[in-house]
Amino acid sequence: MSREKILLASIHDVGPRAEAQVDQLADLLCELLGGMNFAMLVVPDHWSEAPLAGNAAYQAKLRRWSDMGVEMFVHGWFHKDLAQHSGVAAFKAKHMTASEGEFLGLSQDEAARRMADGRKLIEDIIGRETAGFIAPAWLYGPGAMAALAESGFPLAEDHMRVWRPETGETLARGPVVTWASRTKGRQLSSRFFASLARVGLHGLDVARIAVHPGDTTVPELISSIRATYSSFAARRRPARYGQLLAS
User: Fold this and answer.
1) Which pTM was predicted?
2) Less crowded by CB within 10 Å, the N or C end of the chain?
């Protein structure tokens, strides 16, 4: 029997720093997916400018979304990368993100502390367990990977797979479809990849599509996001990441 094909949708960088943009994306995905069939990646204190702690109004919003079925992932702590990198890590830090790969250069102890603090804060807010941990920009250094294996998080994700941190078992494989808004070149390349994905990735058992607050600033990206989600949702069921554990 063939495995059911599913769609995993997510909104990154959720928090009060980009509140209006996240609200816009939540409304858009709810429309395209027929309900709150997506995950949110929550940043506890985005760039040290928008702490969830003490923000009762935003905490209530997260709790309401969670009660409606949205899966909540811990998405780093600050999201900002302040480490000095060399070698492959330096390439990733320069070309795969713009100072956003917070967990690329952390020690195991520091990564573990931020993971645990983020988990406690978000779980206290939503009143239930978080769905897992996803590093900012999907970038993990050796320290983060070691900390993640001992963290107790049920799920983790990078650009190419979803896995169980405790065992390393891969639960889904294939590239995340996402968009980049910070330069014209990145906007064009991400739109081009999304157009290829709408043709070439339907064979995947698990398709993953992620959006970011910055996407809302570029109408062409929103059009591409609409077309891509619609294409995949017409061929497979929007599902929860937690379903991968049940499988």
Assistant:
1) 0.91
2) N
